[in-house]
Amino acid sequence: MEPPSASPRAGRGPWQELLLAVSLLAFWNPPTTAQVTVESVPPNAAEGKDALLRVLNLPGDTASLTWFKGETVLPTHKILLYVIDTKITNPGPAYSGRETIYPNGSLLFQNITLNDTGSYILQIINQKFETALIRGQLQVFQPVSQPLLTASNTTVTEDDSVLLTCSSSNTGISIQWLFNGQILMLTDRKKLSQDNSTLTIDPVRKEDAGKYECEVSNPVSFRKSDPVRLDVEESMSQPLLTASNTTVTEDDSVVLTCSSSNTGVSIQWLFNGQILMLTDRKKLSQDNSTLTIDPVRKEDAGKYECKVFNPVRFRKSDPVRLDVEDKRNSTGLRLGSIIGIALGVLLGLALVAALGCLLLHTRSGRVSLCCDLKELRSPASTPGHGAAIRCTYPDSLPSSTAAVPMYQELQHPEKNIYCQINHKAEVAS
């Protein structure tokens, strides 16, 4: 529908002044055209767009139409006056230059603003100077801007919690949450704040991993946030450290194994609380789960630990202490023990040898003394009649002494040595 041809800026004539006076006098008259209605097209207008307050069922005997802004009919609130017969339009104090009135009473708003929101009154005066007041409502909304979605952490561990927040610069909006492109289903673990701007997931489960979005909307527009991807790691369990042997001997080998129920984790080894330095003797398997020390040295003794970790957390094993003993010989005895035994044997042998020499020296001295005494006691001998003295060392002892214990022989050494004297010159008388 084309707007009236008369300029809204044209001056008022006597007839227009009369219509204005009559309309003011009849302002409080009850309406006679209750079937007349006003509707907003669209029902909710977007800022910067056009909107129309459309009049339906306008009576055929209408003489003039006047739009007012607000809840009351006051000259200061007048937007436009339109005279049907003359097609003359007369603006009022509330006219902004963006409004246009049509012969059917409809009012067009161009480039509508938020300030245009509110109530409007259409005053209809018929040819009998009867007045009717028809009310209309205009709702203007600002198009929403893209919201910002943030997460307290985008990589979390099972049983942890995560907070996602949807921020918007707009007011009077609704917020909806999407998960992997579908409307998010709330559960006991997934809860929204009162204004729907915050989503809390507690505790997090593996199935919560995926793409999250929030969508803000008002009656005239909607916008989605950029997606935020949530990654959920397995809960970190404590690794188990085992050793093929916790007490080893130098030059032996030992294998330590770090076992974890988690996947996608890295493994690090510690020795006495410090990061283990690898050498030609200390080697790790391809996945770092096994440490082999071959050969073992004394300096390898100490406390070993393994640590498993991912980008968000880590866990250490309980320590395993490795004891390293001195190298042993084929008998299984320690070198120190062997040296001690050998020294003991040598000392024992030396003691026995010294005691034997002492006994031998004692016996030899007594035999010599016996022979000397007999020689002194015998008379001078003459050729052919002298006494013959003979000292002998028997090769074997008499049978009567064969069973004599050694300690008795030591107490009576004279039984083993004797002197035999032949008196060839004496004849029994």
From TrEMBL:
Keywords assigned by UniProt, alphabetized: Glycoprotein, Immunoglobulin domain, Signal
Residue ranges constituting the Ig-like domain according to the UniProt record: 143-231, 239-323
Superkingdom of the organism of origin: Eukaryota
PROSITE patterns tied to this protein: IG_LIKE (PS50835)
Family: Belongs to the immunoglobulin superfamily. CEA family.
The protein, known as: Carcinoembryonic antigen-related cell adhesion molecule 28 isoform 3L
Organism the protein comes from: Canis lupus familiaris (Dog)
